[in-house]
Amino acid sequence: MTTHAGLAAGRWRSFSLAEQLANVGSEVDRAIAAWAVHRSDRFDRALARALELFDLTARDDRWRGHRRREILRARAEFCRLFFEDPVQAGAADTLSAYFLRFGVLARRRSVLKAVEGPAAL
Questions:
Q1: Long-range contacts made by residues 3-7, C-beta under 8 angstroms, separation at least 24?
Q2: Which of 56, 55, 35, 57 is CA-nearest to residue 45?
Q3: What is the pLDDT of residue 116?
Q4: Full-model pTM
Q5: Residues 6+ apart with CB under 8 A from 112
Q6: Alpha helices of 1-121 — where are they, by DSSP H?
Q7: For residues 32 and 13, what is the distance between their CA atoms, to the nearest angstrom?
Q8: Which residues contact 63 (CB under 8 A, 6 or more apart)?
Q9: What is the C-alpha to C-alpha distance for residues 95 and 79, in angstroms, rounded to an integer?
Q10: pLDDT in tens for each of the 121 residues of the chain?
Q11: Crossing angle, helix 40-59 and helix 17-36, to 10 degrees?
């Protein structure tokens, strides 16, 4: 079952890589937060959404070669947090910081585009 039906239908491919990974990062953070407070119901939903967005991003034909490998590497690190023992200290914080950078980049581009128009990019 697709939890992001609208995105899976094609809208996801209209997002830049930074926008896609910023959205993935939001779900990653939700999963990490739910795991930390032992909310298995929230964790299960956030995990499913995050994995779906990882997969949608990896299937995007624009991201080939090193970009796709990096997306899949991030996915593997995300899964390692919850399904591998022992987990390295600070791994969740490192992963959150990694995705935060994409959120900042996507936001900056969005603001720049709104202020200066599409020619600025």
A1: 3/45, 3/48, 3/49, 3/52, 4/49, 4/52, 4/53, 4/56, 7/53, 7/56
A2: 35
A3: 75
A4: 0.85
A5: 120, 121
A6: 5-8, 17-36, 40-59, 66-83, 91-116
A7: 26
A8: 17, 57, 71
A9: 11
A10: 566 666 666 889 999 999 999 999 999 999 999 999 999 999 999 999 999 999 999 999 999 999 999 999 999 999 999 999 888 889 999 999 999 999 999 998 888 877 876 555 5
A11: 160
Is residue 121 a contact partner of residue 113, using CB atoms and an 8 Å limit? yes
Do 96 and 25 contact (CB within 8 A), yes or no? Answer: yes
Rounded distance, CA 39 to CA 60, Å?
32
